Automatic annotation (TrEMBL), chain A:
The lineage of its organism: Bacteria, Pseudomonadati, Pseudomonadota, Alphaproteobacteria, Rhodobacterales. Coiled coil: none annotated. Residues 113-322 form the ABC transmembrane type-1 domain. It is found in: Cell membrane. Belongs to the binding-protein-dependent transport system permease family. GO terms for cellular component: plasma membrane. Keywords: Cell membrane, Membrane, Transmembrane, Transmembrane helix, Transport. It comes from the Bacteria. One of its GO terms (biological process) is transmembrane transport. It is a multi-pass membrane protein. The keyword DNA damage does not apply. This is ABC transporter substrate-binding protein. It comes from Pararhodobacter marinus. The chain crosses the membrane at residues 117-140, 152-176, 196-216, 261-283, 303-329.
UniProtKB/TrEMBL annotation, chain B:
Coiled coil: none annotated. It comes from the Bacteria. This is Peptide ABC transporter. The keyword Transmembrane applies.
Length: 336, 308
């Protein structure tokens, strides 16, 4: 197990390096000009100096390795410093600078992270909490009206794209009923019950949209996995021993069925960061997805590169976690 | 017991000629009500998009500024937009693009996925390499990559093939090469199991070259998982294209696709809600029906469920 984890982690390094290189080269080839947003009145020679100040004068490999050094050494030290509160841990000097805002990329990501985590993380949590009981009960009463309704709703939730459900909710709840605000106000500081209510109201719609989508997917997995296990011999034995139905379903079947569901849940966690791009765009939540979109529009190479590689790291790490969880929960699986 | 004792009469033997297995599949598919309803809806949408423009008098890009922002009427069943273009005509031509993108991207992804899956499963020497490549693609953050790609190749391809064809090629290729991985994994798993079967051994022992062995014996047997993931792939590709268009990085503004129409309609959500909702309903209906067809196909193609 330990050897397997180490081997996977070592294998992850070249994978991530390659992904970083691919994204860097794609951005490098892109026709967009980081100086395109500057006023046209700037004379060409000054424009050239500004390009050099952004570091664009150096060859691509120099810039890639500099970015790599900053990303793997300097930025983690700042993250560590801000988590532990020890200022002297942070390495002084150059950091990865966003072309758009001229401030360190790490700081901007740290500013945007709470919004994404609140909205997307909460919706993932709600999705799991809603979908598990529905999936269990639908499988237990297969082809009952509850199962039919549940399967239909999860199919609908799975098929409706968020850029349709988002505007639909805005139309019903903001425009017709006027219950919730259309635009998410990030500057809101929650320090009283009134502000807390405001915060809940503005979070309601984006969280609901994402919850519907997440819950639909997990319900389908939960139901399929329960159905597979309900017909196992061990279940018949458990019933024959005279165990109550409650114990049979919630202990014998559920524990076995949770194995694939847990890995699916773990695999979905990185997607909640990247997959929220559209929802964040619709509700104007300025989280990480929205940051990525604006960075792409503005050809902000360091920002796009850093964010994409962070996303890739999340994907690789959670893939590994999913595989390890599989082995932890299922003693039949051995990675040796 | 009595049934088994009576020999089958010559009539029943004559009534039941040997059946093609696809009839069995169809019989099972028919039972799945959702799949049947899904096929009807999907067919209706396809007819609406591809036959509709032949009947419908308005052109999707014809601007009639005097009759702008009209509501629903007999002349314009879905109304007109802010430039007086007929929304029904725009829905038809938008649907053509969305469906075409979905189907072509699916075909590309299936081709790559099946190819890599079969090669990795059949030839052990390249298995490791191909599967590492698949893992690498799976670790790519796809939506950001798609966005960067569509920004990057937009101008050169538009210049080379014209704006519309260029964007079509770009989006289809981008979706195709970022979504073949699940198919490749499933196919590889199946091929690894198939390779050990007796008929493959028999074919090899009479000297069938690998190329013909793959095409004659292996590929037809992995067809059913490929068909199921192909249906689901159409749905994903339509959603991805719409998402790209919705974010403004897909087709150009004057070129209607469903995602683009939702994006344009959002600005008028307060005054004319139907303008964003209609294309959204069409996308959702298409995806829903395709997903139901996929569900039905999965049951119908599974010999363990079939006939039960």
């Amino acid at each position: 197990m330990f050897n397997y984890t180490m081997r996977r982690l070592l294998l992850a390094i070249p994978t991530l390096l390659f992904i970083a290189l691919v994204i860097f080269l794609l951005l490098e080839l892109s026709p967009g000009d980081p100086m395109a947003d500057m006023p046209l009145t700037i004379p060409p020679e000054i424009r050239e100096q500004m390009r050099l100040a952004l570091g664009l004068g150096e060859p691509w490999y120099t810039r890639f390795f500099k970015w790599l050094y900053l990303f793997s050494v300097v930025e983690p030290s700042h993250v560590l410093a801000s988590i532990t509160g020890l200022e002297n841990l942070a390495i002084d000097g150059q950091r990865i600078i966003s072309f758009q805002t001229r401030s360190p990329v790490g700081d901007i990501i740290a500013q945007r992270l709470p919004q994404t985590l609140w909205v997307v993380g909460l919706s993932y949590l709600f999705g799991i909490l809603v979908s598990l009981p529905i999936g269990i009960y639908s499988a237990y009463r297969q082809y009952s009206w509850f199962d039919q309704a549940g399967t239909f709703v999860s199919m609908v939730g799975f098929s409706l794209p968020t850029f349709f459900t988002g505007p639909l909710l805005i139309l019903i709840f903001s425009i017709w009923l006027g219950w919730f605000p259309i635009i998410y106000d990030t500057t809101l500081v929650v320090d009283s019950w009134y502000d807390f209510a405001l915060q809940m109201r503005q979070m309601a719609m984006p969280v609901f949209v994402l919850t519907l989508y997440n819950a639909a997917q997990i319900t389908r997995f939960m139901r399929a996995s329960m159905l597979d296990n309900l017909t196992q011999d061990c279940v018949r034995t458990a019933r024959a021993k005279g165990l109550t139905e409650r114990v049979v379903v919630l202990v014998h079947v559920l524990r076995n069925s949770m194995i694939p569901v847990i890995t699916v849940i773990a695999l979905g966690i990185p997607q909640i960061f990247t997959g929220a791009i559209i929802t964040e765009q619709i509700f104007r939540v300025n989280g990480l997805g929205q940051l990525l979109i604006t960075a792409i529009y503005a050809t902000d190479i360091p920002m796009v590169l850093t964010l994409s590689v962070v996303f890739a790291i999340l994907i690789v790490v959670f893939n590994l976690i999913a595989d390890l969880l599989y082995a932890v929960f299922d003693p039949r699986i051995r990675y040796d | 017991m009595t049934d088994a004792a009576t020999p089958p009469s010559p009539e029943t033997a004559r009534i039941r000629p040997p059946r093609n297995q696809w009839w069995d599949v169809w019989d099972q598919f028919k039972i799945h009500r959702g799949a049947l309803a899904g096929s009807v809806v999907f067919l209706a949408i396809v007819i609406f998009c591809f036959v509709g423009p032949l009947v419908w008098p308005y052109d999707a890009t014809y601007i009639d500024i005097r009759s702008r922002n009209q509501g629903m009427s007999w002349a314009h069943p879905f109304g007109t937009d802010q430039l007086g273009r007929d929304i029904m005509a725009r829905m038809m031509s938008g649907g053509q693009v969305s469906l075409a993108v979905g189907i072509v991207a699916m075909a590309l992804a299936m081709l790559i996925g099946t190819g890599i899956g079969v090669l990795a499963g059949y030839f052990r020497r390249i298995d490791g390499l191909l599967m590492r490549m698949t893992d690498l693609f799976l670790a790519l953050p796809l939506l950001p990559l798609l966005l960067v790609m569509s920004m990057l190749f937009r101008q050169p391809l538009s210049a080379a093939f014209g704006v519309e064809t260029g964007m079509f090629l770009l989006i289809v290729t981008a979706i195709g090469i970022t979504s073949w991985m699940p198919t490749a994994r499933v196919v590889r798993g199946d091929v690894l199991a198939l390779k050990e079967r007796e008929y493959v051994l028999a074919a090899r022992s009479i000297g069938t070259p690998p190329r013909r062995l793959i095409l004659r014996h292996v590929v037809p047997n992995v067809l059913s998982p490929v068909m199921v993931s192909a249906t689901l792939m159409i749905a994903t590709a339509i959603i991805t294209e719409s998402a790209l268009s919705f974010l403004g990085l897909g087709f150009p503004p004057d070129f209607p696709t469903w995602g683009r129409l939702v994006n344009d309609g959002i600005d008028y959500l307060q005054q004319y809600p139907s303008r964003a909702m209609l294309p959204g309903v069409f996308i959702s209906l298409t995806v829903l029906s395709v997903n139901y067809i996929g569900d039905g196909l999965r049951d119908a193609l599974d010999p363990r469920i079939r006939g039960r």
